[in-house]
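User: Hey, quick favor. My workstation is busy. Could you predict this chain's structure for me?
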Amino acid sequence: MTAKITPKTQNLHATIYEKLKSQIINLTLKPGQKLQDRQLGLQFGVSRTPIREALNRLVQEDFVRQISGRGYFVKEISIRDIEEIYEVREALEVLAAQQAIRNINNQQIKKLSEILNSHKKLIQKGEVKSRLLEEADFHKTIALSSENQYLYEIINNIFDKIAVFQGIDILTSKRVKAAYQQHREIFNLLKEKKAQMLEKKLRRHISEAKRDAIERLKKETGFLYLGYHA
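Assistant: No problem, here it is.
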């Protein structure tokens, strides 16, 4: 008999889902690692039902793979994954920036400026992980400024996946500083409403980020796939 879904169980599913997703993003759960519902149930102090509900949702969002007869596994990272997610990111962020030029308000411009100032301080302190969060916030704020909620939600989800790629290894100081400078230029072009130059700069920024993610993946050994997989 199917378990009855109540508001309480729905909240439990959501809580487990968020915890597992966070552990995947920060690489506490490694790509390729098997996820056993019984063990996870003991870890979280819940039955297997909310665990399976959370795992199935993560399968739908492509963070987890379900293999018939073997169970659930954290999805491995391949070069193809990086190429495809960055291709989608580029197309959607260009669209978001175009809409943001028309719709951004002074409060959002102020927020972007504050993010960049914080970003600069984090670079000076060498706090790379915090800097990655600031970078995501910068792009998400531009997406939010598009005033297209569906577009913002898709881009937000894309950055959850990119967070896994960025957790592969520590970025070089050179790449960190280059990304910051590019953000400054993107910000200025957005304020000045220079659409064509903004698109060109944004595409270059994302292309370089993709190349960097692929290079870092190639340096990794062990739990990450270096090539393409089905």
